[in-house]
Design brief:
By secondary structure, this protein is an alpha+beta fold. The protein has one domain: Distorted Sandwich (Coagulation Factor XIII, Chain A, domain 1). The protein is built from 3 helices and 9 strands. Strands 2, 3, 5, 6, 8 and 9 form a 6-stranded mixed beta sheet that branches. It has a 3-stranded antiparallel beta sheet with strand order 1-4-7, with no helix packed on it. The N and C termini lie far apart (119 Å).
Length: 197
């Protein structure tokens, strides 16, 4: 191979390297999100909330350093997720609710954490296990009712990163009262008539 040809091959390889890094970084950012009840990013992906930006195409990509308390994981391209007034549809849930994650890259997991209005309500320790394609946790919301914001965090075992999801909740902690049957049933008109005979 001539020196000119070697230089051309080296230059081509150098030119392709940044493109390959961008492609691999993009595919590595696909991980997981809460799909039920619908998280903010799931609402964007399903076009239930408009003008969300890039998150509508990659709801699984809200990854940031562990220990954050923001819905967007510190990522400016997903800043919409931090706006509590964006038009999020509150999800009607009971006092004990199952939250299901759709996992697109199965990372070994330390913990799953659930916070309501900044207070931790549940933590599940997976001890470094790898999750399946779908993960469901039952979260106790007893003592809460009305509108609340939940922050759910998936902490990865072998990196300093975590995945962040916010879910807007409308919690009905007290079930609707059921009508009690009267102590003595009233007689119908026809039963009163039959009593005459």
């Amino acid at each position: 191979m001539t020196i000119g040809r070697k230089l051309a091959v080296t230059a081509a390889a150098a030119a392709l390297t940044p493109a390959l890094l961008v492609v691999s970084a993009g595919s590595a950012s696909a991980h997981g999100y809460i799909s039920s009840p619908l998280s903010r990013q799931a609402q964007c992906a399903q076009h239930l909330v408009k003008d969300c930006g890039d998150i509508q195409y990659e709801p699984q990509s809200v990854e940031g350093p562990k220990g954050l308390t923001s819905c967007n994981g510190g990522l400016s391209q997903f800043a919409t997720l931090n706006d509590d007034n964006w038009g999020w549809q509150p999800q009607k849930v009971g006092s004990s609710t199952s939250f299901t994650w759709t996992i697109t890259a199965r990372h070994a997991t330390t913990t799953w954490q659930y916070f309501v209005d900044g207070r931790k309500v549940t933590e599940i320790n997976d001890g470094g296990k790898q999750p399946g394609a779908s993960v469901t946790h039952s979260v106790n919301l007893a003592g809460l009712s009305g509108r609340h914001k939940m922050l759910a965090v998936w902490n990865i075992a072998d990196t300093p990163m975590a995945f962040y999801n916010c879910v807007d909740l409308d919690i009905n902690a007290a079930p609707a009262a059921t009508a009690k049957a009267p102590a003595a049933a009233k007689k119908s008109f026809w039963s009163k008539v039959s009593d005459l005979f």
